[in-house]
Amino acid sequence: MKRIISVCLILAMLLNICGCVATRMEPVRETKNGPIKTDIVPTQKQTEEPTTKPLPVFAAMSYYKADKLAAYEAYKQLHPEMSIEDVVTHVNIGLDTPFYSNVKEIENKSDILVLCNKYNTLGADYEPEDLVDMPYTYAYANQRMRKVAAEAFYKLSDAAKADGYTIVAASTYRTYDHQKNLYAGYVASKGQEAADLCSAKPGTSEHQTGLAVDVTDMVLPYDSFGETEAYIWAKDNIHKYGFIIRYAEGKTPITGYKTEEWHFRYVGVDIATQIYELGITYDEYYVRYLAQ
């Protein structure tokens, strides 16, 4: 009897296993041509739509900032003709807000690549520690620049002279107070709007960095440098010595300043060369390639 019970249990277990296997097999149905597989009913996972949202088009730019998405969208609506690249660039500069609004104090003020503009201020107390007096051979009286910029300017001036041109420094480092008085004078004589096109509010002048220089050919006034033969040489050569024309023609909507062919800014040979080849402003270059 025990043997019969055991055999029955074994048979029951085998039947149970076969039943499980059968339920896992693909369903079939009989036809006149024989059995065929029927379509498998998709599971819930297979029918679910993907929930990941596509990245916004602005994210194609390597300098895209997710927290500025709403600003990009609003700026694009205001400027539908503008490329995605320029929209992201302009908003990152701050151009979606008026000049001198949302002004931030610069953290690393002594950085050679510091961006000082109408959205970034050096403050009242900053003075570079490595300013050097410039000899009369290269500058008007009482001119100072940071050592690395001064030495680069000497090479630039020597190269111009070797090619038959004169380029000397007319105005270099300025203190906060000097710029404050200068700006106030422009406002008094020209009015606020005109003054803002040709002079920086104190704290936002590149001259305070010790890396900027207004140049002259010693014949015409410095602000007529764009009319000289020396300028023709300068615009295609100063990048070789680490300088750029900071406020180039046609860039006023970005820089906030009228064209200043005489205003050179030191950024180093590599970056100056890239800016020259790209034909963009330092503001654009900075937010695309240098800003974190």
Strand and helix map with partners:
Elements: H1 2-24, E1 28-29, E2 36-37, H2 44-47, H3 69-78, H4 84-93, E3 104-105, E4 120-121, E5 131-133, E6 144-146, H5 147-162, E7 168-171, H6 176-190, H7 192-198, E8 212-216, H8 229-234, E9 243-247, H9 252-255, E10 260-266, H10 269-278, H11 282-290
Parallel strand pairs: 3-4
Antiparallel strand pairs: 1-2, 5-6, 7-8, 8-10, 9-10
How would you sum up this structure, described in words?
The chain is an alpha+beta fold and 292 residues long. It is 39% helix and 12% strand. It is built from eleven helices and ten strands. The strands form four sheets. Strands 7-8-10-9 form a four-stranded antiparallel beta sheet. Helix 3 packs across helix 4 and helix 6 packs across helix 7 (192-198).
Can you give me a brief rundown of this structure?
This protein is of the alpha+beta class and 292 residues long.
Q: Number of DSSP strands?
A: 10
Percent range of helical residues: 25-40%
Tally the helices.
Answer: 11
Can you tell me the overall shape? globular
Strand order of the largest sheet: 7-8-10-9
- Structural class category: alpha+beta
Radius of gyration: 35 Å
Topology order in helix (H) and strand (E) letters? HEEHHHEEEEHEHHEHEHEHH
Overall mean pLDDT: 88
**What oligomeric state best describes the polypeptide chains here?**
single chain
Percent range for β-strand residues: 5-15%
Please mark out the parts with pLDDT under 50 across 5 or more consecutive residues, or reply none. Answer: 1-15, 17-47
Biggest sheet overview: 4 strands, antiparallel
- How far do the termini sit from each other? 85 Å
